[in-house]
Amino acid sequence: MFPAARPPSWISAPASPFRLCCCLVLPGQAGSAARYGTPSLSGSPRACRDVEVQQDSVPDELIENMDKKETWDRFYTENNNNPKFKNFEWFFGFSSVKEYILPLVQTTCNTNIPLQVLDIGCGTSALGPCIYAHSQCAVNVTCADISPVAVRLMREHVENTLPQPCNPSSTLIFREMDCTQLEGHFGARSLGLIVDKGTTDALLRSKTGQAKAGQIVKQCLKVLRSTGSLLQFSDEDPDARLLWLEKEVGASEVAAEVGIWEVGELRGVNYFCYHVTPSLGQHRH
Ligand SMILES: C[S@@+](CC[C@H](N)C(=O)[O-])C[C@H]1O[C@@H](n2cnc3c(N)ncnc32)[C@H](O)[C@@H]1O
After folding, report:
1. What is the CATH number of the domain that holds 119?
2. What is the Å distance from ligand 1's center to 131 Cα?
3. Is the pTM value of this prediction over 0.70?
4. Which of 30, 106, 180, 268 gives the lowest tally of CB atoms within 10 Å of its CB?
5. Test site for ligand 1: of 146, 195, 266, most ligand atoms within 8 A of the Cβ
6. Could you please report the per-residue DSSP string of 177-229?
7. Ligand 1 within 6 A of CB of 202
8. Is 6 part of a structural domain of the chain?
9. pLDDT single digits (tens) 126-180
């Protein structure tokens, strides 16, 4: 069964500030493709202003079927039965990760052409709209999700609230999309940044989603520019995720490097940002 109302019963209110930090993590514990270090950001810890969530009793039915459109349609329908829409964050929100995203956008963007940004499995998160609203340089943000319910809710919300971008040339759209098929929607090497907050985690934890998660990584590498980045925000331990990412990258047509930044701890759970960047000019096949 799904939680009936939002916030769901398995999510509790914040009790303590979630602190964001950028630091070196586990040097030497991963394979050769891994690259460790801080992003081009300030390294000082800072308080997070996000809503904190606790996922200690997510229903088994949801976990097992997190790769299915129907599961998420039902989830977003049941969690949005209030007349007033609220963004739902699977875990932390934009303010916890903006220090990773905005400098990357700034260094990747070209002053004349908007940077193409994609949020894969956006759900009803505010992450994509916040990138659109806060980026100084022009961005075309696409928020994509397999669930038409989530996409409709976000379109309606944005139509009602009309968020304003920092840069007047920026755009924001929501699209129903199976992100295992990105090539059908985006040109090769066209995207500057892809963000994934909890989507790969969800696929990897579901009964039949592992191959889809791998397919998404390979598709991301095909549609990323050579200077682009895929950021996976995740609570999966580096021992497991780095090995998995290196395996998927190794089987991809595009060679890439994998790095990791530690985001911080929330209620005893450590969160990470896995950073995948194509190796310049490295098309293998
Ligand atoms: C764990 S939720 C994360 C949602 C959001 N990123 C957040 O942080 O709250 C996973 C999301 O991935 C979406 N999803 C699952 N499989 C997908 C696929 N193949 N293509 C696109 N979205 C998918 C689900 O509909 C769901 O919204």
Report:
1. 3.40.50.150
2. 18
3. yes
4. 268
5. 146
6. --GGGGGGTS-TT-EEEEEEESHHHHHHHSSS-HHHHHHHHHHHHHHEEEEEE
7. yes
8. no
9. 999 999 999 999 999 999 999 999 999 999 999 999 999 999 999 999 999 999 9
